[in-house]
Specification:
The chain is α/β, with parallel strands linked by helices and 156 residues long. The protein folds into two domains: 5-123, Rossmann fold, CATH 3.40.50; 125-156, no CATH class. The protein has helices at residues 18-22, 34-37, 56-67, 78-88, 102-111, 137-150; strands at 5-7, 28-33, 72-76, 94-97, 117-120. Helix 4 packs across helix 5. The N and C termini lie far apart (39 Å).
Length: 156
Amino acid sequence: MQQPILWIHGEALGPANPALRAHPGRPAVFVFDAELLAGRSPTTGDPASGAESVSLKRIGFLYECLLELPVSLRKGDVAAEVLAFARAHGADGIVTSAGTDPRVEAICAQLERELPVEVLPVEPFVTLQDHVDLGRFSRYWRRAEREVWAGWSPEQ
């Protein structure tokens, strides 16, 4: 890839995002998934197919994080919007970061039908030994907080 665009998703919303670091200055896009925002499954459109609705608090958090990044914002079908963004920028590929949400992998598969996709590994904020339910940030943070503070000292 010589002219990729960057797809930034909700699992790597910071300046340490590996796609942003690997390709500084390249056009980047974040897409608010219209189906997910409406409380429907992005794959089936059904309201009762396991999709959790996104709270206004979560949307506000995402938006505030995105304001800190050099990224264009869109809303709609994620794969369609990323591909439209890629076409608009004459991209020859898409670079993104790995995610734990199965939708990230599914969207990458859709994108790869039209353009090559490079998925870069993300350095974990903290390494936990046991499996953690990542469905809710509070569950993750209860486990991660001990590790974060254990390695911190006031001199740092």
